[in-house]
């Protein structure tokens, strides 16, 4: 997909394990918005390295800059200063078409509101990104069906989004995000609109992708069970990283909520 | 640090068919909004098409009427030639539009005994200038004209102004009138007055020459009959020769046309003569469903007898009435004690007897009545065409109509742009998601323009068809069978194509701005939660 392979970055803390290879790196990432006469600092300098194959959860209250960080990392917006490297590609340097290319093949997006195209069937939705990547008819259909099988929706390929439950729609969205085998999945509150039970379907799905396919998952969430599955957890507050910790260093309680729900 | 480079060439462009498929499925999903745009385009295109097809048909009908009525005009001209006296007014009008060496030119030259063409040309020149100045004086207000030339009107004005004193008054008063004086100034006008004065004798000579010639022709050829009867009788080759002896030039080709037209007119008059019989009038009114016999006119009569069945009825009715003549007493003419019915029978006897003497065949009656109805129709259509004059602008439209069409298209553009902008606002999440999935700005733009084009195609086709039907329908109402007979289908088809393309073009144009707005939408909008 990319034209050249590079040697591993030395500051990737790589050791001998390939999963320690850096996939996303930000350097002094800053973003300012000018609203009227007032300058708002959304990000005040973020330096972080995210590793290949990692499952990282990003937490933070609203207005913390979490969404801005997401947009930067997803190649959706350009930083005011600083750099974002996605798979060693400097996003700030890319033209509009190059950005489209990057979004098409390197990153998969999962939205809180699923964002499926309403007038397309399940399978058509999944194959849209393939069309943008130049994968044609039969091959796209075949791959789309494989992906739907992966998320457990193969029998419902002909359904329109309106005919499916929220969990099914989100699973379709997950299949779609995987259409061009991206190395990173960006999930913005993937279970935010779902109840706990259907939420766990999504958790399973994401975990499966992370563990079986080695996809890096960056997930903004407040869902404790999802946080519970993460490798690392990152807190953002006031445009800065407040804390970045391994799962083992954090205590997450999920039992009570689940217990209530199950009762 | 080393960086990877993205090879953009690998980013594919979506094929047109794939894009079309995507757009089509989108349009199908939002059928109602698409229908609005389609209707807007269809309205504008239909309006244009109605105007265009109506104007095309009108122009064709006008041309056809010109040809159809040529025999009538020809006969009118010759009746006039032989029976009426020329006036200076008419002569100058005639001269103004006279091509050199035409038949009319030769006739006038002969009657005026003008030697060479140059002298004739000078006369034409003076006549043209006279028309120009006469128009100026005609358009003046009564008071203004009085101030300039006193009580004189028409051609007298020029005779008055030849006088120096009168001319000076005229010159003094002219600026106060405030009207633009035609021609090249006051000196040119003075030149004209001199030329006019010297041309008058020649004109009078022409008029006198014509008058004498017409008088002699009447005496020798018409022998006291009306001119149209003369043409109805005489259809032989010798007619142009006979007329030539009096200086009239009748082309050979016109003889047959004149004869045909004149016979038609004569026979129509003979048939219409039967209508003077009160009994026939009564039955015609009855057949036409009228309550009173007086309501029936000659036109009602011809309408009732124009078909084959009508003629049969007419002839049978004549027989019926004639049979009743026997009921009359022998000396009915002189008796005073006739009953009302007997009086009616008596009044009907003479017209019908006269008609019977003409021995007009039933076929001829049919022919004449039909021709007469046709004439009536032509006259009606002619009147309608003259009351709807169109300008000489683009496509034969008046500037007013053109402005209307332009406004309708502007409204159309604004309407489509608005509908598309609403569509963009509604679909911001879809658009942003597409961009997240790898759609380029170009794809989004093409997507929207294609969508609008599709609606433009639908609207254009519907509009062109509806507009053509409306335009043709209007013409049929206005011109009757003339419109049907003179429909130029290829021209209409070409016009429909033009209207359709224009509609499509406008739909595409109107979508450019909304498409641009859509293409600029940031992909991060997809993350937004309502």
Question: Taking Cα atoms only, what radius of gyration of chain A do you get, to the nearest Å?
Answer: 19 Å
Please give the count of helices of chain A.
8
Q: Summarize the helix and strand pattern of chain B as letters.
A: HHHHHHHHHHHHHHHHHHHHHHH
Question: Low-confidence runs of chain A (pLDDT<50, min 5 residues)?
Answer: 1-19, 257-263
Structural class of chain A: alpha/beta
Helix-strand category of chain B: mainly alpha
Instruction: Please give the oligomerization state of what you see.
Output: heterodimer
Q: What's the CATH first level of chain A?
A: Alpha Beta
Q: At the third CATH level, what is the topology name of chain A?
A: Rossmann fold
Termini separation of chain A comes to 49 Å
The run of helices and strands of chain A is EEEHEEHEHHHEHEHEEH
For the secondary structure, the number of strands of chain B is 0
Biggest beta sheet attributes of chain B: none
- Output mean pLDDT of chain B: 84
Strand order across the largest sheet of chain A? 6-7-8-3-9-10
Kindly report how far apart the N and C termini of chain B lie: 42 Å
Number of domains of chain A: 1
Instruction: Identify the overall geometry of chain A.
Output: globular
Counting H and I runs of at least 4 residues, what is the number of helices of chain B?
Answer: 23
Outline the biggest β-sheet of chain A. 6 strands, mixed
